[in-house]
Amino acid sequence: MSKVNRFEVFDGIISWLLGIFLVISAIPHLGNPYFFLGSVYAYQMIWPIIGQFVVMVLPILQLILAVCLIGRFFIDAVNFLALGCFLVFATVQTSAAVRGLDISCGCFGPDHETMVGWFSLSLVYGLLMLSLIRNTICLFSQPSVPCRKIERQS
């Protein structure tokens, strides 16, 4: 297997993992926005009006990012936005853990009451690291690497 093929497989696996977790998180939030709103408010970090905006926008953004990650559309923008999302998720959960809030992370809807703690922090930081690795590789890759698709002139 050549280096490019190995990279394509590695990049594809990371893209699919990040996309699947975004879908798994977005679907329950779309299905039960009131639970999601309660989860957002439980973090005690933003004003109520901003919380309502987050509940309206975040699940849609997660689905769009997931589709683009899995389908390999708008690669540079999606890499940057996904990294930003996972960075925000990590920051918010770390803040809740440091402040000692005994709350559900709200990651996967009301059926999965995962509390903010070692498991949820490990998951979000793992996803953040995968996104950071993918961003770094794509940012510093040569044009021949599939992150940067260049049209060939005939």
Strand content: under 5%
Average residue-wise pLDDT: 81
Question: Helix amount, in percent?
Answer: over 70%
Domain count: 1
Radius of gyration: 17 Å
Q: How does the helix and strand content classify structurally?
A: mainly alpha
Order of helices and strands: HHHHH
Number of strands: 0
Shape: globular
Low-confidence stretches: 150-154
Distance from first to last alpha carbon: 27 Å
Query: How does the major sheet shape up?
Result: none
Q: How many helix segments? A: 5
Task: Give a concise summary.
With 154 residues, this protein is mainly alpha-helical. It has helices at 3-31, 33-42, 48-71, 75-98, 118-139. It has one domain (3-139).
Note the main attributes of this structure:
mainly alpha, 154 residues, single chain, 5 helices
Helices and strands in order, then pairings?
Elements: H1 3-31, H2 33-42, H3 48-71, H4 75-98, H5 118-139
Helix pairs in contact: 1-2, 1-3, 1-5, 2-3, 3-4, 4-5
Overview of this protein structure:
By secondary structure, the protein is mainly α. The chain has one domain (3-139). The chain is built from five helices and no strands. The model is unreliable at 150-154 (pLDDT under 50).
